[in-house]
Amino acid sequence: MPVCYQFAEKGTCRFGDSCRFEHIPHAPVSKEQKAPKVPKARKVVDQYRPVPDHIVAFFSRYPEFDYDSDLSFIDEFYRMCDHFGWRRYSNERDQARDAMRRAMVQQFNHTFGTNAEDLASWQKLCEIIQIDPIPDKLKQCRRAVVTSHINICDLLDAPFLGTAPTRFPTEVALSVYTRSLGKIFPRDEVEAGSLLEYLLRHILNPRPERGIQRGVKGGRKTS
């Protein structure tokens, strides 16, 4: 069983006994298992900094919780679960998680659009993930984004927090990071053929190859 890098480094894990990884204090974590360190936040262009309407609307359903929009919405969601004492797989937590998932998809569509044939949407993605130079052709722009391994939750945070998401070298590295921090995007809410579908990856069963085959969308067989 893979070692939980959070528990190994900090002695704690947000998932507790429900964690899928082994809790061994100060255990050595292999390069393949260890999530890459996230670099310091990098500023992005202010013109792409929207108001997180759908995320804010989700948290507004829980006025007893003091939501901090200056922090990652995923971290705030887990903090809210702790605040209300919602155990993993409880009805309250599951209902909130489902509502959050819908808000995540709505927020992506609101921020970046849904049309996979829109060059401006792809260029906006390139700007946020700091692809330089930004291609001026749809095919090249799409290819640059699709071959980048990005956590979509971090991508959603980027415009609001003024940061750029980490580009991981492999799908395996992205998978370890995503699963260890619980930043899994809801594939079941994504419409086929949409812009968002191209960004989905094989998180539960990552492919070992570095790139993505030409013409293949990232969303198939993805969690």
List the helices and strands and how they pair.
Elements (H helix, E strand, L loop, with lengths): L4 H6 L42 H7 L13 H12 L6 H22 L6 H10 L9 H9 L2 E2 L1 H10 L5 E2 L2 H11 L42
Antiparallel strand pairs: 1-2
Helix pairs in contact: 2-4, 5-6
Structure description:
By secondary structure, the chain is mainly alpha-helical. It folds into two domains: 1-31, no CATH class; 43-199, no CATH class. 39% of the residues lie in helices and 2% in strands. The chain has eight helices and two strands. Strands 1-2 form a two-stranded antiparallel ribbon. α2 packs antiparallel against α4 (91-112) and α5 (119-128) packs parallel to α6. The longest helix is centred in the middle third of the chain and has 22 residues, at 91-112. It is globular and about 50 Å long. The two termini are 20 Å apart. Residues 38-48 and 210-223 have low confidence and may be disordered.
Task: Please give a quick description of this structure.
This is C3H1-type domain-containing protein. With 223 residues, the protein is mostly helical.
Provide the domain count.
Answer: 2
Helix content: 25-40%
- Output the helix-strand order: HHHHHHEHEH
> End-to-end distance, in Å?
20 Å
Main beta-sheet strand count, sense and barrel state = 2 strands, antiparallel
Structural class: mainly alpha
Mean pLDDT equals: 80
Shape: globular
